């Protein structure tokens, strides 16, 4: 519990059943019902269940009414926390049927005294984390790996196959963790262990993203465009309103992009006073959206706070990352996400975030351009494409940057165009749509050649059997979203004891989004069409219609400049050649090419640097 005290600095509790050899601990960040009646682990009214719970069930007031309707009488509660209502719901309907009624983000452990069984539950989209594993014969579990590694019997033996997958994606894909002895509980899943040996008894999927996607595609929304926009706005507004339930100050992250602006627009509409919004300005203008955020904030009338961070401020976060993320994690936007979370925590305890809009509504370039690129590639002989790859890679990224600068009057406006040309070159020789997606999301194209004794699964994610864009969005929803985006937001926010809520991926919004035709998501080679229509009802398009930027840091420049000494130490030939895990040659080549400007390998190198820093921490 002490290892993750920052996740819950307000209170702590322990419940132990010595006869069955089980103990549950809890660190509390008090959000709803700040009194002692919200203390956990919490025992149910009948004494049958004990719950240790991380997250929020936003519709607990409605669930309470459902219980009262079922019983035909008022529900007598000690306090007014969602935890107590959850226990009452489980007593009324059983665990699975109760969880199906919960709207929210949650990861919890439930001990059933009557059955002598322990159930672990994770929310539908994987917003809240839950790890479990074996520590020399003892079942251990926690919100973060550091809670497991605190156990004296836990083995820190690294899973080399998980490490190999990490170098492809920049994160360790579920259900693996970086350690062989631990795994992540899959989203939408209940796993139950039965005493006395706590062997896995059964696993139940109470919500399946694949089933939701398949159902939406087979039963599409049958209304017109206006009806679709109306329904999406209604569902988003309800999701946002539910997430305003709090007994502590609440605010929102505002980048000025489509997703966060939509959330803040609906939040402000539902609020009687100005919403507190937060953004950070970056010294590197090419990566800065602070002016756009300020313009949206001014239009909506929010109480906006923007902080200009220097490159030194951002780089000062880097030493904190290995401990913050517990396992190698290479999404460099972890840095600004932590900075904006730290900024928000000065004034609020809860912040709404716009994450999830890209995965649901086709917001990534691969969703829009992937099918177009594949359609073009398959018409060109493979040999010609392979030759074109070498031609495009022959010129350094900096040379391509100059080409686009000189040809700005007729070439498309791109951020870091040289890197994008090289990325295109990397996919020209693909032979299937699956391979195209895999290349587009890969940091290292052949990570098995990088990790000693490592291998990886062939599959990227479960197949969907739909068109290219839908399949890419499904894969992002089930892999990239929970294992990268939501992991980043959870760790960065909880590191400063801030609760981040993500209304766009309310499961009812997700289910509706999958019923929408692709034409309402991508149109005129632009993604998130329908989300833009909702936002335009609240914010003039001139304030948000611009190239997608997102949170980013100028890694390529930093690695050649102020981070060069730090990186050179972690990537030194001696260190690499003595490594138990890495093959030195590919890393040395990438580092050399990056330093000379021949190619930009910042993302691939960042993955190696984050692993090396984690290993040394």
Question: What features would you describe in this structure?
Answer:
- The protein has 617 residues and is an alpha/beta fold.
- Helix content is 43%, strand content 15%.
- It contains 26 helices and 16 strands.
- It has a six-stranded antiparallel beta sheet with strand order 3-4-5-6-10-11, with helices on one face. The chain has a five-stranded parallel beta sheet with strand order 14-13-12-15-16, sandwiched between helices.
- A hairpin with a 4-residue loop joins strand 10 (189-194) and strand 11 (199-205).
What is the strand arrangement across the widest sheet?
Answer: 3-4-5-6-10-11
Termini separation (Å)? Answer: 20 Å
Per CATH, the superfamily of the largest domain is HUPs
**Contiguous runs where pLDDT drops below 50 for at least 5 residues:** none
Which structural class best describes the helix and strand composition? Answer: alpha/beta
Total number of β-strand segments? 16
Averaged pLDDT: 92
% residues in beta strands? 5-15%
Work out the helix count: 26
CATH topology label of the largest domain? Rossmann fold
In CATH, the architecture of the largest domain is 3-Layer(aba) Sandwich
Helix content: 40-55%
Query: Tell me, what's the shape?
Result: globular
Task: Specify the CATH class of the largest domain.
Answer: Alpha Beta
Number of domains: 3
Rounded to an integer in angstroms, the radius of gyration calculated over CA atoms is 24 Å
User: Biggest sheet, in brief?
Assistant: 6 strands, antiparallel
């Amino acid at each position: 519990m002490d290892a993750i005290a920052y996740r819950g600095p307000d209170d702590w509790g322990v419940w132990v059943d010595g006869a069955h050899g089980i103990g549950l601990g809890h660190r509390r960040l008090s959000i709803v019902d700040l009194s002692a009646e919200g203390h956990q682990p919490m025992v149910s009214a009948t004494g049958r269940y004990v719950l240790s719970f991380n997250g929020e069930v936003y519709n607990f007031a409605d669930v309470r009414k459902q219980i009262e309707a079922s019983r035909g009488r008022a529900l007598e509660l000690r306090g007014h926390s969602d935890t107590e209502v959850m226990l009452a719901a489980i007593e009324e309907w059983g665990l699975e049927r109760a969880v199906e009624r919960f709207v929210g983000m949650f990861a919890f452990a439930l001990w059933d005294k009557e059955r002598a069984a322990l159930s672990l539950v994770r929310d539908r989209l994987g917003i809240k984390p839950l790890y479990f594993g074996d520590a020399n014969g003892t079942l251990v579990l926690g919100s973060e790996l550091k809670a497991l590694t605190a156990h004296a019997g836990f083995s820190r033996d690294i899973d080399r196959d998980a490490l190999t997958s990490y170098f492809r994606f920049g994160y360790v894909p579920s259900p693996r963790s970086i350690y062989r002895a631990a795994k992540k509980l899959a989203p939408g899943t209940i796993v139950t262990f039965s005493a006395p040996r706590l062997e896995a008894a059964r696993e139940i999927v109470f919500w399946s993203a694949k089933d939701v996607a398949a159902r939406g595609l087979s039963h599409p929304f049958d209304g017109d465009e206006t009806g679709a926009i109306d329904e999406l706005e209604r569902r988003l507004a309800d999701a946002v309103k539910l997430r305003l339930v709090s007994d502590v100050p609440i605010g929102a992250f505002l980048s000025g992009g489509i997703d966060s602006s939509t959330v803040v627009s609906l939040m402000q509409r539902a609020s009687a006073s100005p919403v507190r919004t937060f953004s950070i300005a970056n010294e590197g203008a090419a990566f800065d959206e602070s002016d756009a955020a300020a313009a949206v904030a001014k239009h909506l009338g929010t109480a906006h706070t923007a902080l200009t961070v220097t490159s030194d401020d951002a780089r000062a976060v880097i030493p904190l990352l290995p401990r913050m993320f517990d396992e190698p994690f290479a999404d460099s936007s972890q840095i600004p996400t932590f900075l904006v979370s730290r900024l928000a925590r000065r004034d609020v305890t809860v912040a709404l975030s716009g994450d999830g809009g890209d995965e649901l509504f086709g917001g990534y370039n691969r969703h829009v351009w992937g099918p177009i690129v594949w359609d073009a590639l398959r018409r060109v002989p493979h040999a010609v494409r392979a030759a074109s790859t070498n031609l495009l890679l022959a010129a350094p990224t900096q040379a391509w940057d100059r080409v686009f600068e000189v040809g700005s009057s007729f070439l498309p406006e791109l951020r870091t165009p040289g890197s994008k040309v090289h990325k295109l070159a990397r996919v020209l020789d693909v032979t299937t749509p699956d391979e195209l997606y895999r290349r587009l999301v890969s940091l290292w194209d052949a990570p098995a050649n990088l990790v000693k004794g490592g291998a990886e699964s062939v599959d990227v994610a479960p197949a969907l059997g739909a068109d290219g864009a839908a399949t890419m969005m499904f894969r992002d929803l089930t892999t990239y979203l929970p294992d990268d985006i939501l992991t980043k937001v959870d760790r960065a926010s909880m590191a400063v004891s801030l609760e981040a809520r993500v209304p766009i991926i309310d499961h009812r919004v997700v289910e509706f989004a999958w019923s929408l035709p692709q034409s309402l998501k991508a149109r005129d080679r632009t993604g998130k069409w329908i989300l833009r229509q909702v936002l335009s009802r609240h914010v003039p398009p001139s304030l948000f219609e611009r190239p997608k930027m997102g949170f980013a840091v100028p890694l390529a420049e930093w690695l050649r400049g102020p981070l060069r000494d730090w990186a050179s130490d972690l990537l030194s030939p001696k260190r690499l050649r003595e490594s138990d895990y890495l093959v030195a040659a590919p890393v040395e080549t990438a580092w050399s090419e990056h330093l000379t400007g021949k190619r930009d390998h910042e993302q691939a190198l960042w993955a190696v640097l984050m692993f090396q820093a984690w290993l040394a921490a």
